[in-house]
Amino acid sequence: xxxxxxxxxxxxxxxxxxxxxxxxxxxxxxxxxxxxxxxxxxxxxxxxxxxxxxxxxxxxxxxxxxxxxxxxxxxxxxxxxxxxxxxxxxxxxxxxxxxxxxxxxxxxxxxxxxxxxxxxxxxxxxxxxxxxxxxxxxxxxxxxxxxxxxxxxxxxxxxxxxxxxxxxxxxxxxxxxxxxxxxxxxxxxxxxxxxxxxxxxxxxxxxxxxxxxxxxxxxxxxxxxxxxxxxxxxxxxxxxxxxxxxxxxxxxxxxxxxxxxxxxxxxxxxxxxxxxxxxxxxxxxxxxxxxxxxxxxxxxxxxxxxxxxxxxxxxxxxxxxxxxxxxxxxxxxxxxxxxxxxxxxxxxxxxxxxxxxxxxxxxxxxxxxxxxxxxxxxxxxxxxxxxxxxxxxxxxxxxxxxxxxxxxxxxxxxxxxxxxxxxxxxxxxxxxxxxxxxxxxxxxxxxxxxxxxxxxxxxxxxxxxxxxxxxxxxxxxxxxxxxxxxxxxxxxxxxxxxxxxxxxxxxxxxxxxxxxxxxxxxxxxxxxxxxxxxxxxxxxxxxxxxxxxxxxxxxxxxxxxxx
Amino acid sequence: xxxxxxxxxxxxxxxxxxxxxxxxxxxxxxxxxxxxxxxxxxxxxxxxxxxxxxxxxxxxxxxxxxxxxxxxxxxxxxxxxxxxxxxxxxxxxxxxxxxxxxxxxxxxxxxxxxxxxxxxxxxxxxxxxxxxxxxxxxxxxxxxxxxxxxxxxxxxxxxxxxxxxxxxxxxxxxxxxxxxxxxxxxxxxxxxxx
Lengths: 563, 194
Hints:
A: elongated; B: mainly alpha; 70% helix
């Protein structure tokens, strides 16, 4: 600190005067300054200026120039972000997990579908994106790309989380997303038809896709595009050059479809000519003797009867299947009962995985002997070591998921855990959401406009469903180890809680009820947290003008010319 | 630092320490606006200030059991706030440059008292706040600690990690920096003599 010697002919330096104003000089030095300023106008002026400057600073800082942010009106716990290096590790593990998931499950499944004649499509695009609104999806997205984009979006959201909080930035993100979707090559949804009984009349020719909703839907004419049909009963007796997507109680295809059929129905009967593949999820599927599928059939059903002709492979998951027709490729099947009639012919391999061997007529023409793999459905009593190893692996996966979610959405995660501690509200809302949301989403799917919304909701529902154990686990962990707001202690509680929850849910007989409780509780907690987030927050009980930091508006030590 | 003119929330603190959520809520509501304003002055952006306020209270909740209730609660609170803000600022990139600017040994120009008086007279509170935002982090932090929360030189030295004797220099340099920013758009030139 530079403090000048004071002589009658020399002015005091600014530092000395500031320290004097701030009452930081010892008594002797302060008296000298006081004496000097009484005789030196220049130093006195500077002293006063410094004092006024102090007051100006205090006044400017204490003045209330903006309202207290509504976001802060309620105290919210947040998770500290530290040890950034862990994100590298988490990212690495996540990539490894994605690869393992892909290599272990998705790729074999894709191969199966590929063998079944689905070419370069993948399951996700097959079920969700294929042609529904954007034709470009199928070629643009592989499952890996979707996952990579999701990771990228999550990382971007994390990196720009500060800006996302701003409404304008959020609006920009949504606008960009909207623009992106708008600029995608949209399908030419040329026709929308709705009514109790809707039909495309015989001799009628529609160019472009047609969306039809009604109790009875009938296509007798020609559609040069795709048909999206939602209704109680659907009959396609005409000619569709594209694909048919049907969500109906009962479907009958007696006409000609050049493309694929994606059917989500209670029962479907195919007696017409299908140019390419059929993907069918339903209770009953009948392929009549006149029915013909050019490529492959993938069916998830209860009762399946195949009397017609299938050009390529069949992949079937069923309770009961009867085969009397022709299969140009192989049959890969998994189910309780397979009957192969004398008229049946299979040119490829025939495989069955199930509890009992197939009933095969000696007259049936099989290119190779049927390969049977005995498979008993797991019950609570026959759990082996593998079961517990897999439980352990899944527990680790849940903990990893929790780690990532807590890192990405720390405040929301803590809010959710807090919401879960309102047991009554969480359970009540959980019951409502767990059962109500899928119903609402399915209803949305049935209406044309809500298809995308419905599918997105179902997708979100599954994600939330997976997170329920993490939420409940954290609450249980906090019961045992106490509350905390620090990241790693919170993760530790979550890990312990998830472990305990999974142990309880593994107990035979009790497990089911425990899982139900966990799902309802967790679902309710997440819903409650979302609900609270969406509520506009006003600032109650906040003093409009705080009394300053600690009292008087001016620094109490500030003075002029005296001690 | 004491808390003149403000009743110490002793009862609230005691209750909050025992886990009384209502007491904690009251404590938060009482002090959060002032702490937010402190952070708003110290931190570069509104969002930073919001984040800092939230994090300070989280820290506070964890540390409440360590609070010595024979001391001033508000003083302790501002100390926690100052330490937190300074930690946040120090972690930011570019800190090093600002810091070296702050602590170098370039001699300061001696101000012309009359010009300084005129400058202070002509500047509004809002202009001062805007100018504060343009200062280096150490300068801004020092001024906020001293003139907003009335922290002592010892407390400022402790928070900034400098010797107590150096606090005056930091404050004086901060004032010079502020005058320079305030005078930039003005015909008034502060300083000039040595």
